[in-house]
Amino acid sequence: MGEKDVSAGRKTRNTLSSQDQESMILAAAEVEFAETGVRKANVDTVAARAGVSRSTLYRRFANKEELLVAVAQRQYERVMRDLDTAVAGLSPQEAVVEAFVAGATLIEQDKLVRRLLVDGDVKILTAHMPSLFIELATERVAATLRRAGAQMPADDLHDVVEIHVRLVISFMEVPPSDTGRWSPEKVRATVGKFIAPMVW
User: Is residue 32 situated within a structural domain?
Assistant: First the structure.
């Protein structure tokens, strides 16, 4: 009688690192939220897409809202890196214009962002957005504009950029009924005329 195969029926152990698993979960969640919207998104489907167990997902993210916030944080870091690239070599006012245009392009092309705006679920994110986040975003953008050559006093630059950050949040929470106002061409014209001159 041969030896019993003790491995039969045993689940394959996931050898991915915690960081890799989290990255796969967030990528799967981004697809799920973009395709079905936050309200209809299914956490079990996210786990299946990511190739992890339900318990593995819940060890890292307690609920769907926490998962959404983590996806948004990853998207934010990606956007900020893209912003640095987009404004490299530009003057401060040109950088402001291109930053807003990059945001408008993101809204136009990114399925997840468009879904959040159309469904109104961006408010779930802003409800979790502490004043500290606004402060950190303001400091980061102000530093980018300073590298672009902004000469205005630090306090003034901070205040102007905070207005810009809060303006973007406001428009995302309550998008204009005329979606044409989100077009990169319209944003370029409006920002160039009214907003960019605030920075010098």
Answer: yes
Same domain for 30 and 90?
A: no
Among residues 84, 68, 94, which one has the least CA distance to residue 196?
94
pLDDT tens digits, 80-114: 898 889 899 999 999 999 999 998 998 889 999 99
Mean pLDDT of the chain: 89
Count of structural domains, the chain:
2
**Model confidence pTM above 0.85:** no
Residue 121 has pLDDT above 60, yes or no: yes
- DSSP string covering 37-52: -TTT--HHHHHHHHT-
pLDDT, position 55: 94
